[in-house]
Amino acid sequence: MDIDGEVCRYDDMLFVAVMNEPYEGGGFKICPQASPYDGQLDSCIAQGVKKTELVHLIPRAMKGHHTSSRGVHMARGRVYRITTNVPVWVQTDGEVAYKSNDISISLLPQAVQFLGL
Asked: Can you tell me the mean pLDDT for 32-36?
């Protein structure tokens, strides 16, 4: 993984979530510090987490209390590039879109503008 040009190596990743909002998946506060207003993307990386540990980790993630758990790493940056040895499923805004082993994520400042009534 590369965050803003800095290489970060993670082995045995269970998942990576890169977000600009705190919540995902119907109320999981995966990236509690994420904000759509700061120009940054927040990420939560679960590495080396055993499936048996998920029983304790998932309820903590509902409220955003998982960030200091063993195997959970939080990061922040503007540009992400995630590469894997084999293609993995990529989910975008709740939809499973495709498989890839090279994923780039970045923000487009002011790409969406909302008009008030």
From this structure: 94
Domain ranges of the chain: 2-80
User: Sign of the CA dihedral 14, 20, 24, 27?
Assistant: positive
- Topology (CATH) of 2-80: Tumour Suppressor Smad4 (2.60.200)
- Flag whether pLDDT at 101 surpasses 90: yes
d(CA 41, CA 105): 9
Q: Is 104 exposed, middle or buried (0-12, 13-18, 19+ CB in 10 A)?
A: exposed
CA 85/CA 1 separation, integer angstroms: 11
Q: pTM for the full model?
A: 0.86
Span 60-86, pLDDT tens digits: 999 999 999 999 999 999 999 999 999
